[in-house]
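Researcher: Good morning. I'm working through a list of sequences from a screen, and I'd like to move beyond sequence-only analysis. For each chain I'm collecting a predicted structure so we can compare shapes side by side. This is the next one on the list. No need for commentary yet; just the structure.
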Amino acid sequence: MKRLLSIFITVLLASCSLDNKTGLWKDASNTPVDKQDTTSINDSKPNQQYENLFIEKKTYNEEKKSLNPSNIKIDKPLKIIHWLEQYAVSTNNISNFFYTGNNKLLSRSKKLSNFTANKNYSNRNIVFYKNNLISYDHKGTIFTYSLDVKKKISQYNFYKKNFKNYEKKIYFIINKNILYVADNLGYLYALNLNDNRIIWAKNYGIPFRSNLKFVDNQILLANQDNVIYSIDANTGDKNWQYATSTTFLKSDFENNLALDLKNKNVFFLNTNGELYSINYSTQKFNWFKKFKAASQTGDTELFLSQPIVIKNNNLIISTKKSLLNYDVITSEKKWNLTAEPNFKPIVTSGHTYVILKNNLLLCLENSTGNVIWSKNIFRNIEEKKIEKKFKLVIDFKIVNNQINIYSKNGYLLSFNSKNGKLNYLSRISKNGINSKIFFLNDNMFFVNNSNKLLKFN
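Model: Good morning. Structure tokens for this chain:
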């Protein structure tokens, strides 16, 4: 039903084009929608390898003490000034955030927008640029909230009134005062943040469904049919596009992109469980993996995964049933742990940290995949009701060398990264947390269940 609705809206929008004076849409029956016909990525016969993740193996479920905690080294904390894309950086991975760490509430904003209270908008796109928060509401109105003056300083709605009541899913990335926006209506547009002026706008016919990457003046993204695009950032025109295998079974997992800037490769994990390595400069396909048995036919099981992350030569994939490490160049599998990751892993120079659905926090060695230590995050908490109060994990980061786990109900658990010992427990937000956790300069930010921005020092 959702797919039929998307097709109907796409056809309706295809007869419209931008009136730049009003920011709305005028009749443009002679303006063609960008065609979806494209070369299939499989036509290029990249190096293919099937990864069977459906062999029944015992899921990792044991606690283990660290034998040599002094051997675990954590990368130096990184101070972030701008948060320009969904996962902050092109690799989707920051090993260690800098923060003053006092957890003292400095300010609480007024309600940012009219998102429905208590609904899960934790995956909404929020970016920070020049000490401003930029996000959107369910009608697609993009707003800028100033952290300095503590109020909204601008807002802009791209959509005609006919489409304002259709709930939007919007993806952001910023480069040099330009906000590039993709949505679930198939639109891609560039907005000048200085004057809220549309630079260009294109309709690509199919809803977009991925994070965005910006490199070499091109925007990389994918739609819900698993077509990956390279878009000219100056004009919105296609540089190239390739189709990958699609699936008719829809899940919460979205197409995900990560960049290896050193080797000019983009890694694309699609909703059908296929991972592609493509050189974004030459358009050459490096290799391909499919996370299903080669003999498996039909499309009967949903592929679920966390976003892919890169650190040095490690490409970490966390699927529904496995945690895997691949060589970014050769695609050689370094190791595979049968487990059920519950969140995007964090990768440091030497180790990978991950939370499992069975509430285990693991530290693994990058070179071997050996579990160095593992701890149940609730094991040493004296107040046994905390586990029930905690609810689901909403974010997971290493901050000042400590592993911080944040819950939907506003709790923070902080663990020693060398041995997994619980160092700190507190409820930092009585009104919960309804966004990812952001660190900028010396401060921590998140949005609570009342859609208010909280700032901590």
